[in-house]
Amino acid sequence: MTIGIAVIGAGYWGPNLVRNAQATPGLRLEYLCDLDEARARKVLGDYSTVRTSSSLDEVLADPAVDAVAVATPAATHLPVAMAALRAGKHVLVEKPLAANYADGRKLVDEAERRGLTLMLDHTFVYTPVVQHLRELIRSGGIGTVQYLDSVRINLGLVQPDVDVLWDLAPHDLSIFTAILPDDVVPIAVSAHGSDPIGAGRACVAHLTIELSGGAMAHVHVNWLSPTKIRTFVVGGSTRTVVWDDTNPAQRLSIYDRGVDKADPQTLPEDRRAQAIVSYRSGDMVAPALPEREALRAMMAEFADAIAVGRRPLTDGRSGLRVLSLLEAASASLAHGGAFMPVLEDSELMEVSA
């Protein structure tokens, strides 16, 4: 089965989707659609047989198109993706799913009603590191999750329509959603941000997420740092994992080091009143991971999910979970950093029940 696909949007991310769609078995690129058709032609090059169009309606009316990949501004995700779903097309959407949770829910509901694949381009979830982390953590390889800490800072492009949380934090939040066990879910969110350059929106932000079971997650995102830092730490009761994405020679390190607390019942009676803490200093392991393009793996997942008729790893509900966290973060920013509740996972499940 070969799936005809059209990429909608020839701006920053569209050309990457074009390149990977053309290189993915099972996909056949039919169109690159952009309001500026000349830009679309430039992306494809002079000798491409892929068609260009400035008309979304024209693309969606073509029976050769089975699916679309949407790489347009977030504010347009709802009308573009909804039009594609109503035309019977499977949809891949660049993050975030929509400009707000309510719009995202409309897309998920529509896809469910029509039996179509709706997938999020949460690219980092498809990196070899995150795939390894998902298997390790969900299999109990680090014990009980105790904390997560992520730093994503660099001298980045200040966006005209969203703050730094909505621009950068979806990467980290989608990773959390992918790697955490099913019984570890966000409960509440606190966010603090600042705008030291007068951009009119937060350019530096810190996000704290209270998780079920007593664990906590923290995200630091920043457009203004002169140095690029991409670190991700997951602490468990038996092991701690450190991911440094700027170190290709050793992206992932797994430490058998941490703090142990003795069970009072195993101690002599005269010592039970004391909190007996010991420090474990074991080995560090750096697993050898393949270097492959995450976007290629994401496209392959999209093609396979359509062909087999299964839910993709980053399906519409994963997009809703990220939106629910972002909206709680925005509400917290507006209320001086107060913790704001997050929709429970059961509520999200009801969306597509």
Report on the structure:
Helices cover 33% and strands 29% of the residues. The strands form 2 sheets. It has a 9-stranded mixed sheet with strand order 14-13-12-11-7-10-9-8-15. The chain has helices at residues 14-22, 37-44, 56-61, 77-86, 101-114, 128-138, 164-179, 294-308, 316-334, 345-351, and strands spanning 3-8, 27-33, 51-53, 67-70, 90-94, 118-121, 145-155, 186-194, 204-211, 216-222, 224-236, 240-244, 252-261, 277-285, 340-341. The protein is built from 10 helices and 15 strands. The mean pLDDT is 91. The two termini are 29 Å apart. It has 353 residues and is α/β, with parallel strands linked by helices. 42% of the residues are buried. The radius of gyration is 22 Å and the shape is globular. Strand 5 (90-94), helix 5 and strand 6 (118-121) form a beta-alpha-beta unit.
List keywords for this structure.
33% helix; 353 residues; 15 strands; single chain; globular; alpha/beta
Tally of separate helices? 10
% residues in beta strands? 25-35%
What is the C-alpha radius of gyration, as a whole number of Å? 22 Å
Main sheet strand line-up: 14-13-12-11-7-10-9-8-15
Give me the count of strands: 15
- The pLDDT mean sits at 91
Query: How much helix is in the residues?
Result: 25-40%
Structural class: alpha/beta
Q: Please write the string of helix (H) and strand (E) elements.
A: EHEHEHEHEHEHEHEEEEEEEHHEH
